[in-house]
Amino acid sequence: MIEQRIPIAPAAGHKPTWEYLVALEPELLDIEQQARAADPTDNPLGPPYVALRRQVMRLVGWEARRSELATEAAYRVAIRRISDALEDTP
User: Fold this and answer.
1) pLDDT digits (tens, 9 = 90+) for 13-56
2) Long-range contact list for 48-52, CB < 8 A, 24+ apart?
């Protein structure tokens, strides 16, 4: 039997961590990998960012399926991580 760890929710008034978001919505890791693989010659706020942002918006923020992820704080953490991944492309 595989043991599944339940993530600990952030304390009231504290922003969620990336690890917490990924534990609840593993698809975020796929989006981060897409960001890291994006063409670095593209404008970081151009088409790759727009497409990835749309994917993030389905999973975290107001459009999220899970109530724990349907917060502005969750959206900000996720979009910052994706933005950073786009900037870190080789």
Assistant:
1) 668 999 999 999 999 999 999 999 887 666 656 678 888 999 99
2) 48/86, 49/82, 49/83, 49/86, 52/82, 52/86
